[in-house]
Specification:
Strand order of the largest sheet of chain A: 1-7-6-5-4-2-3
Number of helices of chain A: 16
CATH architecture of the largest domain in chain A: 3-Layer(aba) Sandwich
Number of domains of chain A: 2
Strand content of chain A: 5-15%
Oligomer: homodimer
Distance between the termini of chain A: 89 Å
Largest sheet of chain A: 7 strands, mixed
CATH class of the largest domain in chain A: Alpha Beta
Order of helices and strands of chain A: HHHHHHEHEHEHEHEEHEHHHEEHEEH
CATH superfamily of the largest domain in chain A: Type I PLP-dependent aspartate aminotransferase-like (Major domain)
């Protein structure tokens, strides 16, 4: 009998990795990650692989029989690593940061181990309630309106990306037009010409047939007079202004749209007013930046990415609505008469009604870990340090005859060009990136090419920015 | 000088957890996960917390100062764990499984450590190419059409959920209507009355004003004659049939719609034909189930969830299109004249144009780990074992005078009721769930209540299903 039980147990274990083996490989993986974090600064940031090179090293068919994990781990080093772009290098100044941090990685691990589905409160109450709490914490940390807490009429939810949140806001705005008897085909969405492409993409996905990208002023911020004129023209054409976005920290140059003025215009026309603070939202943890988002009481939805500058692994986008019923009414698949008393009373939140996907990981864990491990003061410290480094770099550029700033530096993005023009600017960016120790993004405004230097990777310090400046100084040709 | 460097280094480390501390806490977290996996079977599956109970144990404000990770880990045990629903218990028979497995957890860890963004090929080539490869592997493993490989005109991409994929397919179908000169407001989407609510939700989000839920036959599969009649009526009303979904394994009862017949109808009217095989897709790794999806050459898009039954942690939804240009033309934010030669030549794929979000995690790693760690034979073994256990349970139910099956068992979902009616059925489900050792889903069809038993959790074995049967046998009242 004992023998039979043994056989059954061995058979039934089947092809699963045992927990003993998981423990062993898990410890090795933790060391692998720690070694990676310790060595990432020494690695050339951009890999040199050509299209198809990684693929060519992988078999065309999945294995029929199990492979030992040691073989998989070896291929992670030998095949995958040569094709990795090192976003976590402290020399990463490209795009905006997509930061990880040790507590966030630990949070991802815990979430993967529990592997719960938080689609509704009942399918794992802690998944919903920890998310409620950390979203409410952020309301206080960023000085967002108190009514945006989940204990009030609004609320915050974690989505995958700011693109998802912006798309959701566009869908709710379109739904409001039809709910008022208008035609979806007449709805118009507005944002600045410097708004993230997520606006245009989200509007297209949501079926908007009219998208207006409004002109900007000398510092690349939306021109409210031009917005007014566009709205007037659309009203005269019989269209329905439905949605307007204010960007607080555009992707191009971190320009700041006039949130209050846009909010007043939106209110005049009963439009949905969405704020995209994907990158800059994190800075609001420091009171000295909050004047950039003055007017939030005139905002219907707001999005920012803890997965950018708040040391929380992607995906962790925070999406707030001033009135969650507008969102839930649009997305809930349960007709109103079937809603349960707990949901209606506000006792529980069923996050499935807050976004397109039904299933959801326990993403709040990593954010909870980060906020507690750093404390508000820890995050403020590093944000301020990044901003200080950015302004120092901007001063150096400003004093150099070969270089010119192309935009103010309200946060930690420095935009500059070589005065000799596009070719010199593009060559300079390419030369910096070829160094392997620093990575910047070549970009363009209407008046020509420029270089984006985003200072904000988790471990970027004075010495990394100094090294970048030495590179710029050495590589920029004389005028 | 040395002293100064020391000070700078200590200061600049700031509030970050050191890699030494990460190593220590990471090892402890691996052990915590392993202990959890070893003990999950002993835990009552459904927590007993009331709404607000977890929240009440958390402070109303984030800490100002950093907290030691030991305190956070303690709260994970003391505050979070009492609010966890144990989806990874082998007694989990509720909903469909949302499986994790040791290799998938290791994959999540590696992805969190690298923390790269795969929005376009260039931002981390390995992230895109490993995804290309595993998506192509699955084409062979599931016997999908060869043209769906990324090396052909089609291709696969990892999305968050089947809801996202279905929404995407609906958006592409709507876009095709307007591209042909039709009006989005006239587009009609069809699916069976037993289709997942993601169809209705996705269609609403995509702005469809006409959604037809078609009647089903005696085994809950879409009735193609009713579909034809609905299409004819809509055409006569001047509307544009745009999208039709075949479900292969509905959520309610794993009913299988007639894919080939629906595909023929779709082709007649130039409609987009989408297959939702969210749960059952995994079974296609075994040739004996493939007759259920006969007709895939008449399909435009297909979705299934490795994060359900393929032992890969959520989120990992696979979305295939027969012609990727339809998807990219709809979603690409770069006008055609700006597309780069590498993208156009098919040398690289930029996955940002395949879904709403721009940023993307390296989700292919965990699927790559799973497919290699189990091997195709390992996955087949466990799928077949789950199906065998389901049919054995169905036989037991069928032989019991108190109970009746309400649907065939094509895969591993058993749907049954107590013959005494709704009240007895609902009480039985509640009693099973109150046991804490097994968890089922009470559900409803038009003719009344029933109990869904989904056999497919990673570690569910004979003894767990036997225990469930013992519970049913003990708790079901006599007739």
């Amino acid at each position: 009998m004992l023998r039979r039980a043994g056989i059954v147990s061995a058979m039934s274990a089947g092809y699963h990795m045992s927990t003993e083996d998981f423990r062993r490989h898990g410890h090795a993986m933790v060391d692998w990650i720690a070694d990676y974090l310790d060595s990432v600064e020494e690695r050339p940031i951009q890999p040199s692989v050509k299209p198809g090179e990684i693929r060519a090293r992988l078999p065309a068919r999945a294995p029929e029989q199990p492979e030992p994990f040691e073989a998989i781990a070896r291929d992670l080093d030998d095949i995958v690593m040569p094709g990795i772009t090192h976003w976590q290098s402290p020399g990463w100044f490209a795009y905006f940061p997509a930061n990880s941090s040790p507590p966030a990685i630990l949070g991802e691990m815990a979430a993967a181990g529990l592997a719960v589905q938080g689609m509704v409160w009942a399918t794992s109450p802690a998944c919903t309630e920890v998310e409620n709490v950390v979203m409410d914490w952020l309301v206080d940390l960023l000085a967002l309106p108190q009514t945006w807490k989940t204990t009030g009429p609004g609320g915050g939810v974690i989505q995958m990306s700011a693109s998802d949140s912006t798309h959701m806001a566009l869908v709710v705005a379109r739904h409001r037009v039809t709910a008022r008897g208008g035609r979806a085909a007449d709805a118009v969405a507005y944002g600045s010409a410097q708004a993230h492409s997520a606006l245009e993409k989200g509007a297209r996905v949501a079926g908007y047939e009219h998208i207006r990208l409004i002109g900007v002023d000398a510092v690349h911020a939306l021109d409210p007079e031009e917005l007014r004129r566009a709205i007037t023209a659309d009203l005269e054409a019989g269209l329905v202004p439905a949605f307007v976005q204010s960007s607080v920290g555009t992707t191009g140059t971190t320009a700041v749209d006039p949130v209050r003025t846009v909010g007043e215009i939106a209110a005049e026309h009963a439009m949905w007013h969405h704020v995209d603070a994907a990158y800059a939202g994190t800075a609001m943890i420091c009171p000295e930046f909050r004047h950039h988002q003055d007017g939030l009481e005139l905002v219907d939805s707001y999005t920012f990415n803890p997965h950018k500058w708040m040391f929380t692994n992607f995906d962790c986008n925070a999406f707030y609505v001033a009135d969650r019923s507008a969102l839930v009414d649009t997305l809930s698949i349960v007709p109103p008469f079937l809603r349960n008393p707990a949901t209606e009373s506000g006792e529980v939140i069923d996050y499935r009604d807050w976004h397109v996907p039904l299933g959801r990981r326990f993403r709040a864990l990593k954010l909870w870990f980060v906020l507690r491990s750093y404390g508000a003061e820890g995050i403020r410290h590093h944000v301020r340090e990044h901003v200080r480094l950015a302004r120092e770099l901007a001063d150096r550029i400003d004093l150099d005859d070969r270089l010119g700033l192309v935009a103010p530096v309200p946060f930690a993005l420095v935009c500059f060009r070589h005065v000799a023009g596009d070719a010199a600017t593009e060559r300079l960016a390419a030369a910096i990136n070829a160094s392997g120790v620093a990575h910047v993004t070549p970009s363009r405004l209407e008046d020509g090419a420029f270089i984006r230097v985003s200072i904000g990777q988790t471990h970027t310090e004075q010495r990394h920015v100094d090294r970048l400046w030495d590179l710029v100084d050495e590589l920029a040709p004389p005028v």
